[in-house]
Description:
Layout: E1 5-11, E2 21-22, E3 26-33, E4 35-40, E5 43-48, E6 52-55, E7 60-65, E8 70-76, E9 89-91, H1 97-106, H2 115-128, E10 132-133, H3 143-153, H4 158-169, H5 176-184, H6 188-205, H7 210-216, H8 222-232, H9 234-245
Antiparallel strand pairs: 1-8, 2-7, 3-6, 3-8, 4-5, 4-7, 6-9, 9-10
Helix pairs in contact: 1-2, 3-4, 3-6, 6-7, 6-8, 8-9
Amino acid sequence: MPYPIEYLYQRSPHLVLPQRQREPYAQLLHLYGGSALLRLGKQQWLLPKGSSVWLPAECLYSLTRLAGAELCRVRCSVRVSPSLPQAAGFLTDAPLLAPLLDSLRDDSDRDWQGAHGRKLRVLLDTLQTSTLRQQASLAALAPGLAAVLAVIMDGGAADAQADAWQQSSGLSPRSLPARFRAALDLGPDQWQSQWQLLQTLEGIKHGLSEAQAAEAAGLNGLAAYQRLVQRYLPTHAQAGNRSSAS
């Protein structure tokens, strides 16, 4: 890295599968929109939009971005790493952080010598004085939404999700789709579909056939799995077609 800090913007309309990686630099992950799943060791954290997560240098992690997730990575060079947090965690509220990151996203000119570079230097100062908090996977969400996501991740159907929402939030099940989308930019059905697709792929990786893995993930047969692949992983589907044809 030529500078002590750099800003990278990423967005994908499709599901981005996790890859375990270890970066030589410390970094901030900030989710502008959508949702993602961050795995650190045996822990998996849900990142709703607005989340800011800090990862120290050489931290082993994987990040799954659900379709439409919009995020930035702010990377810090090894030269400044000793002055930054040395553990992973969610950043505590910093008044300047969100406006700075929004402003950096909107910059058309990313010259280090101009306004963009000055904002990055302010951001580095902010990070050097930030504190962290660790939390359970779903603790960033309101209780009702956390309960619904726990049901989804446990394989619960729509009626079980509605019951969990009503019991945890005290609100009508009819309000669930709008509240869910407001927090995660996806409806409960879209989030569940991608979760089931991820679980199917995990089962295949562990030796199950596609049909067996789809059934274990709660999908209605192999055709349902293939439809989800076409919808959320079009490049994966094209690679599979090429392999079948060869």
